[in-house]
Write the structure tokens for this entry.
Amino acid sequence: MSTETLNRTSVVTEVYPQKISEKQDLSPKKVNIDVLKMRVYKEKKRERFQSRVLMGMFCLSIVILGYIIV
């Protein structure tokens, strides 16, 4: 086992925590509540739309099957 590989791994472990701390410093400390409310509103709106489309497709398939059978 050579000392070069040991030296190289110690350098990597020393540099890695610095990169993590730099990434943490870039995140904002404050959160805009209006942005979060808008995200929640859009998410609920999309879920309602998806459920309506699903229900519409279900009703339409029953009507088509009823028309074919009768």
